[in-house]
Design a protein that fits this description.
Helix content: 40-55%
CATH superfamily of the largest domain: Glycogen Phosphorylase B
CATH class of the largest domain: Alpha Beta
Number of domains: 2
Strand order of the largest sheet: 3-2-1-4-5-6-7
Number of helices: 14
Low-confidence stretches: none
Radius of gyration: 21 Å
CATH architecture of the largest domain: 3-Layer(aba) Sandwich
Length: 370
């Protein structure tokens, strides 16, 4: 029996540069026995060992929201429409409830069932930009179903769209490949070894971690692993605060290499200040037994559960107080480390794939009856 053909993608380079592309690689590799996936993207280096069965490169020049976005969306729609005609997919997945490629998939769907998947950055954009909100509404209107990773994000989407698509929202909890056993081990040292890893952009608010290092009672050490548009400003802030001896910047690491590094630290700092759909790196850290200190956002609170210590998002003094609390209480560190591994077991990638498979099957069945 032939597998149904699925077309999806993100208009980003085919690289593991953000949680969305990594999550897609994980999930669609799990779905491969049931769905044949072609993943669309901008060209990448070609070095990433992703899990997609087939890929296709887009040629339209990417444009953010603004005066050139509509032309970009039109160019992508022409490309996607041609691919739909040549590949004859049975199902479309629009990654993000916004941005150019998701809109092009929505406009090219016709009678093909479309499942859209919220990722978080799309919801942030829709809350701040009318053009992005209109894009979200158009994509959701074209969707047979909308997958959302948690109720906190679903509530924000409902508020933005005035509940007009509430009946299409389905919670599909995100997951990760779980390790066989935790690898991190908390120390009893009063000077903490801290890690921040991921994309360095404004919403990740890495600067909160740097500012907190200047406010702690003890001289903790912070390693920042990643890349992004905020890197230069972050380096400048660290120099300004005189933290050169206590702060280290390292370039982006492939996730398997990052997992190995978790054993070198006492805690991961997750400093997102506005919205987080899942917190991929934070959950991966928990799965390896590394406790997480995080900005207390509804989505993260739900996802991280035990094994995580919250602080006020964007508040460096609040974060500094949490770090000193951990430094003074090794028993709390051990308890949180044990809770971290237990909490992460609830986020199994196999469950994510099963839920998304069921939602996709229902969407195709519904289309067949129409």
């Amino acid at each position: 029996m032939n597998r149904p053909r699925l077309l999806t993608g993100i208009d980003l380079p085919l690289e593991p540069s953000c949680g969305s592309t990594i999550w897609c690689s994980d999930v669609y590799q799990q779905l491969a026995p049931d769905l044949h996936t072609t993943f669309l993207s901008l060209p990448g280096s070609g070095a990433w060992q992703h899990g997609f069965e087939a890929t296709a490169a887009l040629t339209a020049g990417k444009q953010p929201y603004g005066p050139h976005f509509d032309r970009y969306a039109d160019e992508l729609t022409a490309e996607v429409g041609a691919l739909v005609r040549s590949l004859s997919p049975d199902l479309l997945h629009a990654q993000h409830l916004g941005f150019g490629l998701a809109l092009a998939l929505a406009r090219s769907a016709g009678s093909i069932p479309l499942v859209s998947i919220a990722h978080g950055t799309d919801v942030i954009a829709a809350a701040e930009n009318l053009q992005a909100l209109r894009t979200m509404v158009e994509i959701m209107d074209a969707s047979t179903a909308v997958a959302v990773p948690n109720t906190a994000l679903a509530d924000q989407i409902n508020a933005l769209t005035q509940h007009q698509f509430a009946d299409r929202l389905t919670i599909v909890p995100w997951g990760i490949p779980l390790p066989a056993s935790p690898t991190a081990r908390p120390t009893a040292d009063h000077r903490l070894r801290l890690l921040h890893a991921g994309r360095l952009d404004a919403n990740k608010s890495t600067i909160t971690a740097i500012d907190a290092m200047a406010l702690t009672a003890r001289e903790h050490h912070l390693t920042i692993i990643g890349s992004g548009p905020e890197l230069r400003a972050l380096r400048a802030r660290a120099d300004e605060l005189g933290l050169a001896e206590r702060l280290r910047f390292e370039p982006f690491l492939p996730r398997e290499d990052l997992w190995e590094r978790f054993a070198d630290f006492d805690a991961l700092l997750s400093t997102t200040k506005q919205l987080e759909a899942f917190g991929l790196v934070a959950v991966e850290a928990q799965a390896h037994g590394l406790l997480v200190v995080y900005g207390d956002l509804p989505g993260l609170r739900h996802t991280l559960g035990t094994g995580a210590l919250p602080y006020t998002p964007g508040d460096a003094a609040s974060l500094a107080a949490c770090l000193d609390q951990l430094a003074n209480d090794p028993a709390l560190r051990r308890t949180l480390s044990e809770g971290a591994a237990a909490s992460a077991r609830q986020h199994d990638l196999h469950t994510t794939a099963a839920r998304l498979r069921d939602l996709s099957t229902k969407a195709m069945g519904r289309a067949g009856r129409d």
